[in-house]
Amino acid sequence: MVMIYIQVQLALFPLSGQYFNRTEVQRIGFDLTNQIYKPPKEFGPYYFIAFPYAFLDSNEGNSLSTGAIIGIAVSSSVLFLSLIALAVYAILQKKRAERAIGLSKPFASWAPSGKDSGGAPQLKGARWFSYDELKKSTSNFF
C-alpha cells in the first residue's frame, strides 16, 4: 500500500493591523489541531505543523515618549499635592467653624462644669443687688 501525503499551506491574515497577537495565534493553532476532519485512509494521518510566527514586539507602537512620561508624572504629582492641600484646608476650616459655633453659644452649657444640671445658667462676674442699692445707685430710678 502506497501512502500519499497532501501538503496544504494555509495563509491567514489578521482582521485588523499587520500582525496577530499571541492569543489569536494560540486560538488558530488550537482550532486547526482539534479538527474533526478525518482524511481517507489513502491519504494517511492528518498533522498540523506550525511554522514559527514573528510576533510584533510588544514595546513597538505602544511606547510612550520620555516627554509624555515626565508630563504624566508631573501632572500626577501636582494633582496629589493639590488634594493634600485641599484636605488640610478643609480640616482647618472645620476647626475654625467649630470654634466659632462654640463662641456664639454662651449658654450652651447651663452649669460651669459642662454638665446640664437643670438649673439657671451661671454667669461669671454676676452679682446680686438689693433694692436699696439699686435705688441709691440710680438716684431713686431717675
Helix content: 40-55%
User: What's the average pLDDT?
Assistant: 76
**How many strands, which pairing sense, and closed or not: the largest β-sheet?**
none
| Shape call | rod-shaped
Q: Give the tally of β-strands.
A: 0
Which class do the helix and strand fractions yield?
mainly alpha
What is the multimeric organization of the chains shown?
single chain
- Distance from N terminus to C terminus (CA atoms, Å) equals 144 Å
Task: Tag the structure with descriptive keywords.
142 residues, 2 domains
Summarize the structure.
This protein has 142 residues and is mostly helical. 40% of the residues lie in helices and 0% in strands.
Describe it:
The protein is mostly helical. The model has no long low-confidence stretch (mean pLDDT 76). It has two domains: 1-63, no CATH class; 64-105. It is built from three helices and no strands.
List the helices and strands and how they pair.
Elements lengths: L21 H12 L32 H38 L27 H7 L5
